[in-house]
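Hello Y.,

Per our agreement to keep a running log of every chain we model this quarter, I'm adding this entry. I've kept the format consistent with earlier entries: sequence first, then predicted structure.
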Amino acid sequence: MGPAIFRLNSLAARLIAAAAIWTMFGLAVGGVFLSNAFRNAAESSFDTRLSADMDGLIAAAEPDPDGGVMLQDRFVNHQFDRVYSGLYYQIKPLSGGPGAQISRSLFDQVLNVTGNVKRGAISYGFAVGPENQHLRVLSRRVEFPISATPEPGDTRAYLFLVAGDLATVDADSAAFNGTLIWSFAVLGLGLVIAIFLQVRVGLLPLRKLRDALARIRDGSAQSLEGKFPAEISPLATELNSLIEHSNEVVGRARTHVSNLAHFLKTPLSVLASEAEAEPGPLADQVRRQVDTMRRQVDHYLARARAAGSVNVLGNRTPVAPVLSDLARVLTRIHAERDVAIDWDCPADLYFRGERQDLEEMTGNLMDNACKWANARVMVRALREGARFTLTVEDDGPGLTPENRSRVGTRGERLDESVPGTGLGLAIVRDISKLYAGSLTLDASPLGGLEARLTLPAIQ
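Predicted structure for the entry above:
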């Protein structure tokens, strides 16, 4: 399941991608929320400090008899005394006239407040301070009595403004955002790794199911073996039932094919015997038709039997024992001609199919080579990846390219002196095609015919 994880059509890739996207989205939304919350908390704390400075400034203000304002230094923050310190105040009468004051820190600057929002007695706004400082401004209206006037209760209103540089808030927010970004990046990476591991562990039963199916196709098992989770166990049970049903259907089909073959061959043998007993033109015609029927029956029954078994799961046949048995049997059959059969095959080579089909194909090729060989037949099997090549050669007269095509594709007989139906190579070609294989004929280095059969292999 390793490389498959990175394919877009992979279930694991979809699960990981979906979880990773939602994780990153959630972290991004959470990061923005935390950043705004920290910024709001920092600004609220900054406003609280400015409000405290405002209270100190108001506490330090004392009215004079004419309604003016005098400040006592003991209540005032000394940052107001440093030029461009970042903490400023400004006092101005709301009715105009004399009495306006500014802190030493402002030097000769005047604050112009924008974006005022009133909350209770205090208004909050912003201003551009000295050296383009971004200032937070708190303002409050305060009235002082005028004792010098003859009218009792006369007052004069002033606007007290306290401003502070937001650079510290910006710096703290930037530092917090930096920490937030790299910590969330590490957290996101850890979550993605955790998701990857979770998907890998969660999909292990599917990998186990795949391996079990592979063992069935390789022939090392006849059913799905092992324990599966509750979600997959019904699937494994249904697959085992399907495999069992398929084997039963194929078994019944083979029985019917065998019965049909027996039923047809017996009447044909009777007809052939009767024709031999009564020579004449009619007998010759009967023999020819019987021979044709036998060839057709052998041909189509072989195809039907192979077609019924080619897709059955669990077919796995070792090649070497088949070659050994065929070489021993054919050596006895052709003992009078003293034909030597040499064969070479790796012990670990397996055919992905049934032994009967391999024997049918290999037996036809080897028998044909023995019939036409002068003294020697050579058989070699060589694995090539997921397939193997079976080569059968003889030292006989061989065939011309035209005759090789006629024999291989149409099953024609070119010489009636050698017994046989003439359909052996055509049957081999048909069965090999059912296994997605191929049969090619060529000239052999031994001087005769070389038949090269390519078939699927299994580890």
